[in-house]
Amino acid sequence: MVDFEPNTPPRPYGILYLGPSVTTYSYQNAGYRIYTVDGNYNESSRQVLDHDTYILNITDANLTNKPKWIHEYSAKDAYNMTNLTPDGWLSLLKEFLTNNDLFLKYYQ
């Protein structure tokens, strides 16, 4: 979710990330996300540079008794983003207006 300043026109200034749940629900696989952040150094932006989502097929894990976490996607790669700044996410939201396939990929 993109958060906007209450200016006119509104300017994006933050991102609220919702990650997958490690808890399994009906017809849902467990998942987790790893965030790559601009590191710990002087004048670091502390911005999220990318995030990678991993999933566990709970049915397969129960059948084989060997849980195997699978890389599902990288945000930058999946949505062809140059960065994950607030402006980068706003650009993606605008692209959803004209690219239904990309929106459906995100929505799923």
Biggest sheet: strands, sense, closure?
A: 3 strands, antiparallel
C-alpha geometry = globular
Q: How many distinct helices?
A: 4
Number of strands: 5
Spatial strand arrangement across the major sheet? 3-4-5
Fraction of residues in H or I helices: 25-40%
Low-confidence stretches: none
Mean pLDDT across all residues, rounded?
Answer: 92
Overall domain count: 1
Order of helices and strands: EEEEHEHHH
Q: What is the rounded distance between the termini?
A: 16 Å
Whole-number radius of gyration? 17 Å
Category from helices, strands and their pairing = alpha+beta
Pfam families: ASMase_C (PF19272)
Organism: Amphimedon queenslandica (Sponge)
Protein name: Sphingomyelin phosphodiesterase C-terminal domain-containing protein
GO biological process, one term: ceramide biosynthetic process
